[in-house]
Specification:
The complex is a heterodimer of chains A (626) and B (99).
Chain A: H1 2-19, H2 27-51, E1 59-69, E2 72-80, H3 82-105, H4 112-131, H5 135-153, H6 160-191, H7 196-202, H8 208-225, H9 234-237, H10 243-252, H11 257-264, H12 266-269, H13 273-296, H14 300-319, H15 323-353, H16 371-385, H17 391-404, H18 408-437, H19 454-475, H20 479-488, H21 503-525, H22 539-545, H23 550-596, H24 603-625
Antiparallel strand pairs in A: 1-2
Helix pairs in contact in A: 1-2, 1-4, 2-3, 2-4, 3-4, 3-10, 3-15, 3-19, 4-5, 5-6, 6-8, 8-11, 8-13, 10-15, 11-14, 13-14, 13-18, 13-22, 14-15, 14-17, 14-18, 15-16, 15-17, 15-19, 15-20, 16-17, 16-18, 16-19, 17-18, 17-19, 17-21, 18-21
Chain B: H1 4-23, H2 27-52, H3 56-86
């Protein structure tokens, strides 16, 4: 039953890719239908789960025996529990909406069938990622989504810059994937198993050092896939893909795989406090990093991408705070899935009406021309900056609260970062909204902004409803927290609980900071004359525009030395290793040339040689026998 | 007469033969020098038989003569054939190896 969740979209991808041009006419409908049926199946499974008592809810299904080497057995198995069903519903639900949106968005694209095939491939790989019952199964899905992401970022690969962006994303993801493969290797050495249940059972007996090593490796994997510091540089360029891809893969689902990985591995992180702290620190750094980059981007999609990075930073921060934070990290992940996907689709809708213009400085006053887009985008905006009662308020506020309550200096630093991040988020998101929908009109004369067709605005509207209501639904009676409790239950010996500030105070502080951020943005960009081109700006803005020099840093620290290393290795290879091998060859040839001279073809010289030889032989015998 | 003197003669003959094989170009002369060396060896065998007072050396000398006769038959046949094909009896001309 669970297998069909993955199988349906996988079948769609295979069918559309193998079917070729014959499926052009109706391929997108098939893909959307399969994604929707996967969603329906997910809903049914969720419904079944609700009917069961808590301890029976996790469903395990063995597909086949995958690897059997000596004492090492890995089954290809699927695990559907309270955590994975959240992801299943998010992936297939948002995925189906984005399939529907793409029917209209990609209607003029000649390669629409291929696009839908890749989307289906992504859905099935992502489902495999969240449904795998062992790290090895998860790894297959992990690589599958990487492949789908690569294919979709480079979907318009006729533009070299887009193809390069796809390659960049792929290569940076490989760095993270290396971390995951190391984590699998270490856990195999430590536990002799790679399945979640086995490792969870034996985690108590493992040494802290081994657990910390696994944790750090998993963190590296998460930073790669989730665009976290220091492997964040690819996400901005990944916006080269079509906008539905940015919404589905690079906002709602794939980039949150890191959060899933860490939450799923809670039994490791809870026993490795150092690794857990590292997770929280990475999250805090990234949430500020992404927020700062977001303040300076003029490209609407890149601003949203920076925002995604920052929001996932919040989730990683939450996941790094231990049992107190897992549920809220997942909650923020789900609400973020709604509002960020909605806003990306809104951005796509704006681009659709503006001749694919992405520069926000060439928008302005669009609310009159695309009211539905403006409203749905605005609801997403209110959700992301955390205005009550929208979804982001519940999830982000809880994360800030948990961070502040982490205790000691850690609590002040992490909580402070989360609060500052909230203020910056309010600023840059207000900037996006004001520059796009309010302010003065700055677009070219040949742009004719118009509202998008219903196939596009309907998904946006549904996602907007989600971003309004989901937060309340999840927190009402601690619904999500209780739902996830069996999966992320505390594994630590003692769960310390301290409260730095009462929740109410935290909310008030956060809202005040948000209000300040919004006020600054309104004050700065409300002016009727926002310049069309970036004005003379401070050095800080210029650095932020360049993604805080992350590419320059990577180039100077990793790429150039890496190239120098490979070049020197080539030199060593060619001179020393090749030299030794071909030296032996030419030595043999040379000595052959010399010996060849002895073979003259003259009988007399042979005879003379023989004579000399015999004479020497006799002499030797004589000397020896004397 | 001391039999050792025969050995001196044999070694002188052998040396002359060897020098002839190495230095002369005409195949017939080289061939005759080879015969000379064989005969020097024969003389040495016979002399040793005489010195030791037994017959082994004498018998070996007969064998050598038979072998020398066979060798002459084959060797002369080869020389004549080479001469017919190359119009030369020089051993140096019979080299086919390139330099």
């Amino acid at each position: 039953m669970i297998g069909y969740l993955i199988g349906l979209p996988l079948f769609g991808a295979a069918f559309l890719l193998l079917g070729g041009r014959r499926t052009n006419k109706w391929g997108h409908l098939l893909a959307t239908g399969l994604s929707a049926s996967s969603f329906a199946l997910g809903l049914k499974l969720f419904n079944d789960m609700l009917a069961l008592p808590t301890e029976d809810r996790a469903m395990h299904q063995k597909l086949f025996s995958w690897i059997q080497v000596g004492g090492f057995n890995v089954d290809a198995g699927l695990l559907l529990d309270q955590l994975s069903i959240c992801f299943v519903l998010l992936i297939t639900g948002v995925g189906t909406l984005i399939h529907i949106y793409s029917i209209a968005y990609m209607s003029h694209d000649l390669d629409r069938r291929r696009f839908f095939a890749y989307l289906n491939l992504f859905i099935s790989a992502m489902l495999l990622l969240v449904l795998g019952d062992s790290y090895l199964n998860l790894y297959v899905g992990w690589e599958g989504v990487g492949l789908a992401s690569y294919l979709l970022i480079g979907f318009w690969n006729q533009k070299p810059a887009y193809a390069t962006a796809a390659k960049k994303a792929f290569v940076m993801n490989r760095v993270g994937d290396m971390g995951l493969s190391f984590a699998i290797m270490i856990s195999f050495v430590t536990f002799g198993a790679v399945s979640f249940s086995e490792i969870e059972k034996h985690a108590h007996h493992a040494s802290t050092a081994a657990l910390t090593a696994i944790g750090i490796m998993l963190l590296i994997a998460a930073t790669g896939k989730s665009a976290q510091f220091p492997l964040q540089a690819w996400l901005g360029d990944a916006m080269a893909g079509p906008t539905p891809v940015s919404a589905l893969i690079h906002a709602a689902t794939m980039v949150t795989a890191g959060v899933y990985l860490i939450t799923r591995s809670n039994f490791i992180f809870d026993l490795a406090p150092n690794a857990q702290t590292a997770v929280a620190v990475v999250g805090a750094i990234t949430l500020l990093f992404g927020a700062l980059v977001g303040t300076a981007k003029d490209d609407i999609k890149k601003a949203l991408a920076a925002s995604t990075m920052s929001q996932i930073g919040y989730m990683i921060l939450g996941a790094g705070l231990g049992p107190a934070g897992y549920a809220f990290a997942i909650m923020h992940l789900l609400t973020h899935g709604f509002f960020k996907a909605g806003m990306f689709l809104g951005a796509g809708s704006v681009m659709h009406g503006m001749n694919d213009e992405v520069n926000m400085r060439k928008y302005g006053a669009l609310r009159k021309f695309m009211p539905i887009t403006a409203i749905t985008f605005g609801l997403g905006y209110l959700a992301i900056i955390g205005v009550p009662p929208f979804a982001g308020f519940y999830s982000k506020d809880k994360l800030i609260e948990v961070a502040l309550n982490a205790g000691g200096a850690k609590g002040y630093l992490l909580g402070g970062a989360a609060l500052v991040g909230a203020a910056i988020t309010a600023f840059y998101m207000s900037r996006v909204v004001i520059l796009t929908f309010f302010s003065n009109k700055r677009w070219d004369d040949n742009a004719h902004p118009h509202e998008s067709p219903i196939l596009m605005w309907l998904p946006m509207a549904i996602l907007a409803i989600g971003s309004v209501t989901s937060g309340f639904l999840f927190t009402n009676g601690d619904a999500l927290q209780n739902w996830l409790a069996p999966v992320v239950a505390s594994h630590a010996e003692h769960a310390e609980h301290s409260e730095l500030l009462p929740p109410m105070t935290v909310s008030v502080i956060a809202l005040t900071l948000v209000a300040i951020g919004v006020a600054i943005a309104v004050f700065k960009y409300r002016a009727e004359s926002n310049p069309n081109t970036p004005e003379n700006v401070s050095i800080f803005t210029r650095i932020a525009r360049k993604d805080l020099m992350q590419d320059a840093f990577n180039e100077a620290v990793f790429m150039r030395p890496g190239q120098a290393l490979t070049k020197s290795l080539v030199v060593v290879d060619e001179s020393i290793i090749d030299g030794a091998v071909s030296g032996i060859g030419s030595a043999a040839v040379g000595s052959g040339q010399m010996l060849r001279k002895l073979q003259t073809g003259f009988v007399r010289s042979y005879a003379a040689l023989m004579l000399v030889g015999i004479a020497l032989l006799l002499l030797a015998i004589w000397v020896v026998t004397q | 007469m001391n039999p050792i003197n025969y050995l001196y003669v044999a070694s002188i003959l052998f040396t002359i033969g060897a020098i002839g094989v190495v230095l002369r170009r005409n195949a017939i002369v080289v061939f005759m020098c080879v015969e000379l060396m064989l005969n020097a060896a024969n003389l040495a065998f016979v002399t040793f038989a005489r010195i030791n007072g037994n017959l082994e050396g004498q018998i070996v000398a007969f064998f050598t003569m038979v072998i020398a006769a066979c060798e002459v038959v084959i060797g002369l046949a080869i020389i004549v054939t080479i001469y017919r094909s190359r119009r030369s009896a020089s051993v140096d001309d019979a080299s086919l190896l390139s330099r």
